[in-house]
Amino acid sequence: MASGQLLRAEALACTGHRHACHVMLYSDTKSQLFGRIPIRHVVLMQVRFDGLLGFPGGLVDPSKETLEAGLTRELLEELGVAVPVSEEDHVESRLAPAVSAAPSNLITHFYVKKMEEEQIREVEKASASTAVDHGLEVMGMVRVPLFSTKRGGGLGFFLSHSFIGNARSQLINSLLRLHLLSAPELQCALRSSLKMHAQSAEDLKAALALC
Ligand SMILES: O=c1[nH]cnc2c1ncn2[C@@H]1O[C@H](COP(=O)(O)OP(=O)(O)O)[C@@H](O)[C@H]1O
């Protein structure tokens, strides 16, 4: 098993750990950007309160509720609509890397749920209207652009943003595992991200000089 990865049961047996559950909601779509670039799939992420990109979800206390019940409760707060998640949607559990000298005590559990495009639209509408976390813990839901434009835009530029924890690798692993994109398509997007990242560093230095 890959480093840090745990079976769901092993993860639940860890004492003294915090548990965070997040889900990637997605659907197929026939929509085309500019009437010619196939969008293929709708994948939802969110801009969090801290400005980072991540998946909807949150901390769950497994001594009080199941991981899936806790995730479903978090989703209601963040999305404003019931999206039941079950054990069958579970993809992986992993010990989060340590962020300081102290060992990590956070276990992240990741889920993937396929929906109809219409249900995704309902989630998007509710997340900006009835969700109690809107504008507070969640600044807004976003669709991941899965296409690539000639100049490396689309997925490449999206991946150059900053993500919370291992959310970027959760996204990339899911796109590969579900065959939503091929490995060469992802490699191409990631190369474009690296270039964009270097350019952003220069832009940031220039912006700092304005202050
Ligand atoms: O999308 C994600 N993928 C992987 N880990 C995440 C993601 N979002 C948050 N985390 C991790 O889980 C922890 C708790 O998540 P979150 O901030 O969503 O919970 P909360 O809203 O209940 O405080 C975060 O501090 C972060 O380390």
Automatic annotation (TrEMBL):
The name on file for this protein is U8 snoRNA-decapping enzyme
| Pfam name, any one | Nudt16-like
- Its primary localisation, in coarse terms, equals nucleus
Q: What family does this chain come from, according to its entry? A: Belongs to the Nudix hydrolase family. NUDT16 subfamily.
GO biological process terms, alphabetically, are: mRNA catabolic process; nucleotide metabolic process; sno(s)RNA catabolic process
Q: What is the lineage of its organism?
A: Eukaryota, Metazoa, Chordata, Craniata, Vertebrata
Q: What is its EC number?
A: 3.6.1.64
Q: Known InterPro entries for this protein?
A: NUDIX_hydrolase-like_dom_sf (IPR015797), NUDIX_hydrolase_dom (IPR000086), NudT16 (IPR054754)
Q: Where in the cell is it found?
A: Nucleus, Nucleolus; Nucleus, Nucleoplasm
| Cofactor(s) for this UniProt protein | Co(2+)
Q: Name one GO molecular function term.
A: phosphodiesterase decapping endonuclease activity
